[in-house]
């Protein structure tokens, strides 16, 4: 199991100092005042952004093969949009819109409807960027395209390819364009269909809601209960629906491993193995933080903290990205810091980011760390690391891409 992650030998806490700590480069980063470290991370992020854009856009002759946010060009556009939010550089926003336009053309034949892997990601990000640029005509175009999308009755209920991923895209548009841009009645209808199907599959089971993805009942963020519950908690639910969401989350907490980690699926309960956003404690921790905010019950925050301990001990993965890498796992600590204000969580996010800043490029070049099948992408590659570094500039504005709103 240890071949999946680096042993975390970083101290549980290091006091910040204005002078160098006198240790190795990583120790010095851990002791560096946050304001200074965040500027280092920002500079590194902006350098990485240039590399990601060149590799995914410039060298391709501006031809898009993979349009998705997950592994394709839309991830570069998202990174540019995030950089614009941090720096206000209008060139980033302009280039973001150019890439979104190419993704629009490349996605024309796609039947996928989600934010992370489908066309609503293109239209949603396009609408958000057009809104920021003040281009009303382009905004109207992307919103019109979004509204033309129809959900098949056969679509599954999960985040990456299913109904929940469409629902998240609706919420993203309403956040960045304006409330009721996509009517709450539409959002309610989709949420109601998800809950009805979850109840139907859960009949005679221990959980109020249950879902399947290719025949397996997944628990994690990408395909399972955690991701579905996370998005539903952003919707105005009826009291009985909210109780079912709450009960499903409590069912998950009760079924965790003694280690505090979570199985990938109901069918995989013997393997306490994965500590990823997509499967395992990290993605579930983000959902539990949201549950604590929505339901105001301490049990959820305590369970999130327990999951975060797993991430600290086993989450220094030998991968760089946000789906199943160190960058994604760092967001657990940022989320808990926003929820609690406790400095130890900010330190742990700082520690994971510092590890990446200090060692990622060396480990990748030596082959000791995996850069992902799409090494410059947002979810698998260094695009996700750049996004994390930008989010470290202001932790209270940090959000896991395509998951936290």
UniProtKB/TrEMBL annotation:
GO terms for cellular component: plasma membrane. Keywords: Metal-binding, Zinc. Zn(2+) binds at residues 278, 323-324. It comes from the Eukaryota. InterPro entries: 6hp_glycosidase-like_sf, LANC-like, LanC-like_prot_euk. Pfam families: LANC_like. One of its GO terms (biological process) is peptide modification. GO terms for molecular function: metal ion binding. This is LanC-like protein GCL2.
